[in-house]
Write a structure and sequence with these properties.
heterodimer; A: mainly alpha; Rna Polymerase Sigma Factor, Chain: A; Arc Repressor Mutant, subunit A; 2 domains; globular; B: 93 residues; mainly alpha; 0% strand; elongated
Chain lengths: 195, 93
């Protein structure tokens, strides 16, 4: 963390190579538009540059930048006068479990996916569907999923960025995985009938 | 015996951290006996592979052009760098 704090005083253009993709992905799953996401990333870096003297190194540079981005996303939706994807949305309660009965049994059997995983991984249409499913998730779930699965951050760091506990993060990631699984099953693998 | 709900939660948890030996054992037994949870475990792993591939971090093959859809584009990257350098120059002058 000390090493990252030192980076705050280096060439800010280096931030773009180090954190640009991560910030873009987080922005994109919130706003769903590449151009707006890129604009938000730029505004985030500019705000960081103007306020870097205030960066005290208490958090990692990554956490600091994501915190700025979250404000920029909120500002964006405020200007649009539209409701943001619910970054602080309360997670559904246990009573609303869409996948399991009160006894913990599957409500609907998860369908088998018939595919060539490598071929599918490279199929543009499938990637587009994957992106759409990711954007349909509640913002905190999508952000947790991107930070953990794509950026491969440790659970501790994702907790710090999201301001949550390890238990809540586990719940967010679980719901993200279940939600994505269900969305792909519905929209790509073509069955909601189960087996 | 774990319920399917508990088992799938442990599957997800196991992707993020080392499970306790007792949970690992319980989960292994459940997955041996439950085809649906076993299928879900494989699908969770696929989601991980696919999203990384989409982000241009494919394990199997070089990233395809479409992988860049989940990355900052090169023109945007250059534009932001230019903007930051201009801002730094303005501040210095």
């Amino acid at each position: 963390m000390a090493t990252e704090a030192v980076h705050a005083s280096n060439d800010p253009a280096e931030w773009v190579d180090r954190y640009g993709d991560m910030l873009f992905r987080v922005a994109l799953v919130h706003v769903g538009d590449r151009e707006i996401a890129e604009e938000l990333v730029q505004e985030t870096f500019l705000a960081a540059l103007r306020n870097r003297q205030q960066f005290a190194g208490r958090s990692s540079e990554r956490t600091w930048l994501v915190a700025i981005l979250k404000h920029k996303i909120a500002d964006h939706f405020r200007q649009q006068r539209s409701a943001p994807k619910q970054f602080v949305q309360a997670e559904p309660s246990e009573a609303e479990d869409p996948w399991f009965t009160a006894e913990g049994k599957w409500r609907r059997a998860p369908a088998a996916w018939h595919y060539d995983p490598v071929e599918l991984a490279h199929a543009h249409e499938f990637q587009e569907q994957l992106r759409q499913c990711l954007e349909k998730l509640p913002a905190r779930q999508a952000t947790a999923f991107v930070l953990r699965e794509v950026e491969e951050l440790s659970s501790c760091e994702v907790c710090e960025i999201l301001g949550t506990t390890p238990g809540s993060l586990g719940q967010l990631l679980y719901r993200a995985r279940m939600g994505l699984r269900q969305c792909l099953e519905h929209h790509w693998f073509g069955t909601t009938k189960g087996e | 015996m774990l319920s399917c709900k508990e088992a799938t939660r442990l599957v997800s948890q196991g992707l993020d951290q080392q499970l306790r030996w007792w949970n690992r054992l319980q989960l292994r037994i459940h997955l041996l006996l439950c085809a649906l949870c076993s299928r879900t475990a494989r699908q969770f792993q696929r989601l991980r592979d696919w999203i990384r591939c989409y982000a241009g971090q494919c394990q199997h093959q070089p990233a395809t052009p479409s992988a860049s859809q989940f990355q900052l584009s090169q023109p945007a990257r250059n534009r932001i760098k230019e903007r930051l350098r201009a801002e730094t120059g303005d501040a210095a002058s």
